Task: inverse folding
């Protein structure tokens, strides 16, 4: 049962990788506003 749960979690994370990357980028720009100039 634990293996099945781990597999489902892995699939869930794998599917959501683009969303997680986007969220991480937004958080990075939020915590470091001075990097907005570098991104542009």
Result:
């Amino acid at each position: 049962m634990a293996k099945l749960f781990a597999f489902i979690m892995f699939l869930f994370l794998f599917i959501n990788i683009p969303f997680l990357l986007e969220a991480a980028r937004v958080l990075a720009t939020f915590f470091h506003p001075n990097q907005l100039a570098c991104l542009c």
User: Anything to note?
Assistant: The chain has a mean pLDDT of 80. The chain is about 80% helix and 0% strand. The radius of gyration is 15 Å.
